[in-house]
Amino acid sequence: MTTLPQDDRSPLPHVDDASAPHWDGLARGVLTLRRCTVCRALNHPAAEECRVCENIPLEWVDIGREVRLYSWTVEVRPVVQGMRPPYVVGQVTPAECEDGDVRLVGTLLADPERLELGMPLLLQPVMAPGSERHLAVYVPA
Ligand SMILES: [Zn+2]
């Protein structure tokens, strides 16, 4: 079982009607994002119109688990309640995102000394401590 560097005092993401399909996707083990029905661009965070062509509406699609590492940081100080440093937070880009302009944030369960820009990672959602909600966690592919 994968454990997170946090406990049930750590903050949980806010889920609303506009973002619920994304969180439901994490519970099923996949990234679920909005895709434009006209230009096919992925959009995140969920918006009412496409970030590229401004088309309305967008459709929700499962895009799998594969992402690429865009950036990361190692938190060494206790800046968030319930998070036990050190831990790694990263920005990732879905492998399916052709323009690379969609980025998601999550915890990386990896040795920071082995991380490289652009390296392939896999989504491995983990249930948040003290919650029924799944959080985005990424591991080396
Ligand atoms: Zn579009």
A few lines on this structure:
The chain contains one helix and ten strands. By secondary structure, it is mainly β.
State the main characteristics.
mainly beta, globular, 35% strand, three-stranded antiparallel sheet, binds zinc ion, 141 residues, 10 strands
Task: Walk me through this protein's architecture.
The relative contact order is 0.24. The protein is 6% helix and 35% strand. The radius of gyration is 15 Å and the shape is globular. The protein is mainly β. A hairpin with a 5-residue loop joins strand 1 (31-36) and strand 2 (42-43). The chain has a 5-stranded mixed beta barrel with strand order 4-5-6-10-7. Strands 2-1-3 form a 3-stranded antiparallel sheet. It has 1 helix and 10 strands; from the N terminus they run H-E-E-E-E-E-E-E-E-E-E. The protein binds zinc ion. Residues 36, 38-39, 41, 50, 52-53, 55 line the site of zinc ion.
What's the order of the H and E elements? HEEEEEEEEEE
Mean pLDDT: 92
Q: Indicate the radius of gyration in whole angstroms.
A: 15 Å
Chemical compounds bound to the protein = zinc ion
Major sheet summary line:
5 strands, mixed, barrel
Distance between the termini: 17 Å
Number of strands: 10
- Percentage of β-strand residues: 35-45%
Going by helix content, strand content and strand pairing, the class is mainly beta
The best one-word shape is globular
Number of distinct helices:
1
Share in helix = under 10%
Strand order of the largest sheet: 4-5-6-10-7
Pick out the low-confidence regions.
Answer: none
How many domains, as an integer? 1
